Amino acid sequence: MSDIEIARKATLRPLAEVAAKIGIPEAAIEPYGRAKAKIDTGLLPKSGKRGKLILVTAINPTKAGEGKTTTTIGLGDALNRIGKRTAIALREPSLGPCFGQKGGATGGGHAQIVPMADINLHFTGDIHAIGTAHNLLAALIDNHVYWGKAPAIDPKRVVWPRVMDMNDRSLRDLVMGLGAGNGAVRQGRFDITTASEVMAIFCLAKDMADLQARLSRVVVAERKEGGYVTAADLKAQGAMAALLKDAIKPNLVQTLEGNPVLVHGGPFANIAHGCNSVAATTTALSLADYVVTEAGFGADLGAEKFLDIKCRQAGLTPDLAVVVATVRALKLQGGADAKELTREDVGAVEKGLANLLRHVENLKKFGLPVLVAINAFTSDTAAEWTAIEKACAAAGTKAIRAKHWADGGAGAEELACEAVAQIDKGEAKFKFLYPDDAPLKTKIETIAREIYRASGVSFASAASKRLKAIEEAGFGKFPVCMAKTQYSFSADPELKGAPTGHTLPVREVRLSAGAGFVVALAGDVMTMPGLPKIPAAEAIGLTPEGEIDGIF
């Protein structure tokens, strides 16, 4: 039975019943249909509590899939099964990957959140609202230039792109304003909405006041006489915030087992900071004893940004990190043939373990206890599981098999019990990888050396000049958001395993003044993805009964 068929057969609990599990009163629920809702955080009880925060991350992704979201959901269900008041906090799926290659992002098997099709498609409209707010600012910029208003913007130095929530490579580089009366002719681009600075602001803002303040600080262009032009200079932040008034409220859905899940915000981890909203995470922490959240792609991207950017800005202190791995993905990391993943190959697993163990070692640099979750498949063998368990034990980390895909929360109870045991030891001593006052180049070099194990960083001339200008403008204390391929510790997607001695090529640097970080683009990473030769959209459609089908 496919994931969407399992989700379609699920018996959904009334949302008021789901919300009550973590103390959300019915008055705070704003229904969007029958199975999803917004939460009015102003109507929540002021408990003053702070739950334990568990971060779920993974090895570098492969086409075999690791099941990070599935494991997050399974662990949350399992914690509830063993009597722990638990909430799950996840990102919203983007339409780009859903119709492209990656597919949906609501878990799988019997560890899913529902309504699956709704969440993967338009959901409550948050991403559309973010895209509209972003493009409103873009329109105001070009209108400002057209009418020659002050401050005078240099059209050749507009840095604010347009966005859409779709993979469309033809929009990566374009010329705008062609034709009489259509404004200044200039070069521009589209990014995917999940790479938008508005998305990052939305996910890092503590509340509506913080959201509007951050929007006002967005740098959109340079003045003709020198200096930056911000959204506040264009009087844009109020209208942008108005478009986000409802979107800023966290969304409530449920797992197949009827447990509460807050799904809110969706920045990509390979080109943005890859974490769900601070509003959702802090709301969950104020209500539940345990909160399970995830960070996108491998721990070298999502987890590093969760820890160095989100936790830094929101004052969060995680209690445990869980790294997800599968036998199949480790085989690919170890050089196995993709066509033979169902065949026992302990040797390939052992070679691939270098990737897993490096992520474990990296996370311990942040002062966190670490568990490994082996997301089990029926094609796995006991010898392959044992190889993983022994290698992790030798590295001082426990690896636990979890069968949540097949058995739901019951299949992850051992993982849940061990997570609680690790947290109860109180050994977490969270720390950042680098200090605020380190130079921006040093921050990039620290990430490259300590996380990617690069021998050095090569900065393009334009990138070096931009870093210097950003520091001179007073933004040098910002953390760095690395944008690179998710498939490798390096900037080369084909370099598997645990490479060392490579050089990280930083080709471009962008300032996200509202979000409060600096983006460094390495290698060939694109902020507007393209569709594969056979897009997933070709298999999506409606059944004769009008049900959405084909999402995976």
**Number of domain modules:** 3
CATH architecture identity of the largest domain: 3-Layer(aba) Sandwich
- Give the integer mean of the pLDDT values: 96
| Strand coverage percent | 15-25%
Radius of gyration: 23 Å
Structural class: alpha/beta
What does this structure look like?
The protein has 552 residues and is an alpha/beta fold. It folds into three domains: 3-125 and 247-424, 3-Layer(aba) Sandwich (Rossmann fold), CATH 3.40.50.300; 128-237, Domain 2, N(10)-formyltetrahydrofolate synthetase (2-Layer Sandwich), CATH 3.30.1510; 440-522, Formyltetrahydrofolate synthetase, domain 3. The chain has 18 helices and 25 strands. Strands 1, 2, 3, 4, 5, 6, 14, 15, 16, 17, 18 and 19 form a twelve-stranded mixed beta sheet that branches. Strands 20-22-23-21 form a four-stranded mixed beta sheet. The chain has a three-stranded antiparallel beta sheet with strand order 7-12-13, covered by helices on one side. Strand 24 and strand 25 (548-549) form a beta hairpin. Helix 3 (68-81) packs across helix 16 (413-424), helix 8 (208-216) crosses helix 9 and helix 13 (346-364) packs parallel to helix 14. The longest helix has 21 residues, at 126-146. The chain is globular and about 70 Å long. The mean pLDDT is 96.
